[in-house]
């Protein structure tokens, strides 16, 4: 089942297009990450998905219905879809009443509310703070209560804007775990945004990447602006930051432009131990500056004049075992390049 | 110098012994001031709330006019309302001039802009996320407005207290519409003006002290409310 279908959506602020999504489908009970740098339109998109904001053009279909933005319709939708803000605010009442608020709005009887609130607070580990004034909690505690306040409503769709951003490292893991467990248990549609892949939770239905209001087909790491260098018979050479040469086959380019934006898919980059021979055809030199485990894969950061991110499997990593600081060679096929 | 110390001593004596004339005057001031503050709040808080929450054409103009009215001299309001209530005015037949009602009406008109403007700013200053949070949790328009009101309540209280202070300290409206009738419309400020005319500063100083104590008390209340509401 399709949960959301986006059709030719345009959102403008002060005449400027901040969101431009021609076509997108999100499946029901899916788990998505919405990635992108700050200011890329993630929050705007989330607000539109939460039906708190309207697109200037185009349509949002929800559960197969085209949503036209009638008041009664929006009120009904908001009872199914809940958004947790990047920096949530709690009402200046007790933690208990904060969590209870939505249930009241949903018309749940008092007795049931009590059980549900206590259960929700327990899930996020905040039951001890039941009577504490909401606006006096720390960032991490606020975030947890905000999650409880949303999940107590058992929404069909839970939208989380940068769920880990206002939280210290220790609690980032906690929030991620809570969200993941929630999704596994309650089987809701879960969409969260992040500007930092490190906090990625390996979402089951993949990542959507927004850059300057547009969905782009690849990771937003390894996103470069390349400048025209030379033209060959079958390819064109571009350089990134004047340091890293990239050859793009001509059939991948619509026309030869002075500048192109391109992605290098970090999963398609292969690493080899340094051969010692400089400038081997297609091989770039660099040194390894960081290695970490992420979502069952190994992430590496390589300085090859510019910073390149590489993802590889555990087995590949074990066979190579490159050490941080050591020189490495890397190469990528032209299929790893995406021009936008 | 003796004049000043004598007057101050008399004043001190009057305050300490809760002189009955002093009490009547203070009581009248508080009664009239409270009633006009209540009326002004009943009009000003909802209007400020609506203006603050909604966006409409001419909103900026309305706010500018209200801000101008904030600085309105009390005698101008007094004169204006007098023109309506005097024998030759439209409401002349009601025979309301020099009554407590007239003072309350005049004072309410004086402070409705104060309550309204401060309420507008309290609402507009409030973090937009409160409304957003209420809406995403399923609140309708009315319930969202209630949440906003609750979160802005400190600012609204401040608006009410500020207007009560303005009413207690004003002299133009009370004098022109109340007529400073002893035991009836004589307020702290009109009594002070009269005593000054008479050249007897004892009671005037005493009333001045009470006024300052009231101002101090209101500030205390204000800070207490802010303390309990904010932290």
Nearest-integer average pLDDT of chain B: 91
Summed over residues and divided by their number, the pLDDT of chain A gives a mean of: 85
Bulk shape of chain B: globular
CATH superfamily of chain B: MetI-like
Report the major sheet of chain A.
6 strands, mixed
Query: What is the fold named in CATH at topology level of the largest domain in chain A?
Result: Rossmann fold
**Class of chain B, according to the CATH hierarchy?**
Mainly Alpha
Give the uncertain stretches of chain B in residue-range form. none
Taking pLDDT < 50 over at least 5 consecutive residues as the criterion, the unreliable ranges of chain A are none
Rg calculated over all Cα atoms of chain B: 21 Å
Q: What's the alpha carbon Rg of chain A, rounded to whole Å?
A: 23 Å
CATH architecture of the largest domain in chain A: 3-Layer(aba) Sandwich
CATH architecture field of chain B: Orthogonal Bundle
Number of domains of chain A: 2
Textual characterization of the structure:
The complex is a heterodimer of chains A (340) and B (231). Helices cover 23% and strands 36% of the residues of chain A. With 340 residues, chain A is an alpha+beta fold. Chain A folds into two domains: 2-216, Rossmann fold (3-Layer(aba) Sandwich), CATH 3.40.50; 223-339, OB fold (Dihydrolipoamide Acetyltransferase, E2P). Chain A has a six-stranded mixed sheet with strand order 6-7-8-3-9-10, with helices on both faces. Chain A has a five-stranded antiparallel sheet with strand order 13-12-11-14-20, with no helix packed on it. Chain A has a five-stranded antiparallel sheet with strand order 15-19-16-17-18. In chain A, helix 3 (95-105) crosses helix 4 and helix 4 (110-123) crosses helix 5 (139-151). Chain A is globular. Chain B is mostly helical. Chain B has one domain (2-209, 216-230): MetI-like fold (Orthogonal Bundle). Chain B has eleven helices and no strands. In chain B, helix 4 packs parallel to helix 9 (172-178), helix 5 (100-125) runs antiparallel to helix 9 and helix 6 (128-136) packs antiparallel against helix 7 (141-151). In chain B, 38% of the residues are buried. The mean pLDDT of chain B is 91. Chains A and B meet through helix 2, strand 6 and helix 3 of A and helix 6 and helix 7 of B.
């Amino acid at each position: 089942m399709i949960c959301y279908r986006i059709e030719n959506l345009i959102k403008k602020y002060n005449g400027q297009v901040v969101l431009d999504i021609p076509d997108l489908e999100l499946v029901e009970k899916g788990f998505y990450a919405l990635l992108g740098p700050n200011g890329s339109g993630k929050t705007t998109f989330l607000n539109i998905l939460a039906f708190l904001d309207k697109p200037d053009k185009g349509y949002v279909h929800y559960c197969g219905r085209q949503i036209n933005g009638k008041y009664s319709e929006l009120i009904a939708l908001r009872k199914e879809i809940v958004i947790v803000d990047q920096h949530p605010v709690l009402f200046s009442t007790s933690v208990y009443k904060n969590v209870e608020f939505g249930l009241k709005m949903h018309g749940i009887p008092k007795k049931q509310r009590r059980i549900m609130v206590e259960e929700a607070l327990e899930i996020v580990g905040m039951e001890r703070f039941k009577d504490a004034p909401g606006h006096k909690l720390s960032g991490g505690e606020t975030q947890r209560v905000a999650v409880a306040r949303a999940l107590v409503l058992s929404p069909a769709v839970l939208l989380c804007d940068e769920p880990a951003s206002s939280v210290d490292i220790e609690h980032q893991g906690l929030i991620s775990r809570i969200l993941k467990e929630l999704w596994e248990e309650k089987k809701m549609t879960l969409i969260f945004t992040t500007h930092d892949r490190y906090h990625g939770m390996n979402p089951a239905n993949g990542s959507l990447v927004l850059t300057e209001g547009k969905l782009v087909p690849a990771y937003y790491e390894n996103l470069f602006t390349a400048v025209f260098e030379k033209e060959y018979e079958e390819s064109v050479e571009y350089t990134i930051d004047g340091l890293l040469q990239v050859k793009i086959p001509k059939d991948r380019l619509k026309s030869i432009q002075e500048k192109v934006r391109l992605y290098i898919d970090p999963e398609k980059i292969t690493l080899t131990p340094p051969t010692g021979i400089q400038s081997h055809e297609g091989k770039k030199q660099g040194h390894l500056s960081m290695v970490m485990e992420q979502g069952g894969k190994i992430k590496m950061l390589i300085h090859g004049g510019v910073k390149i991110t590489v993802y590889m499997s555990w087995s590949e990593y074990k066979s190579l075992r490159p050490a941080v600081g050591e020189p490495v060679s890397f190469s990528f096929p032209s299929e790893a390049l995406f021009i936008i | 110098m003796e004049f000043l110390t004598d007057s101050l001593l008399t004043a001190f004596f009057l305050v300490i012994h809760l002189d009955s004339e002093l009490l009547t005057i203070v009581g009248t001031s508080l009664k009239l001031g409270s009633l006009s503050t209540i009326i002004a709040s009943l009009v000003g808080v909802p209007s400020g709330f609506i203006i603050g929450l909604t966006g409409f054409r001419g909103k900026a103009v309305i706010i500018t006019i209200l801000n101008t009215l904030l600085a309105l001299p009390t005698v101008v309001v007094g004169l204006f309302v007098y023109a309506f209530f005097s024998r030759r005015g439209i409401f002349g037949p009601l025979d309301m001039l020099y009554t407590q009602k007239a003072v309350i009406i005049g004072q309410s008109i004086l402070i409705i802009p104060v309550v309204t403007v401060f309420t507008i700013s309290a609402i507009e200053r409030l973090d937009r996320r409160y409304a957003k949070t209420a809406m995403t949790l399923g609140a309708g328009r009315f319930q969202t407005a209630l949440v906003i009101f609750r979160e802005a309540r400190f600012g609204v209280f401040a608006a009410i207290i500020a207007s009560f202070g303005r009413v207690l300290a004003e002299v133009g409206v009370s004098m022109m519409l109340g007529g400073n009738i002893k035991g009836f419309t004589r307020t702290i400020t009109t009594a002070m003006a009269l005593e000054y005319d008479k050249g007897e500063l004892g009671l005037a100083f005493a009333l001045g002290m009470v006024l300052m104590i009231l101002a101090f008390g209101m500030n205390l209340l204000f800070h207490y409310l802010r303390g309990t509401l904010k932290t």
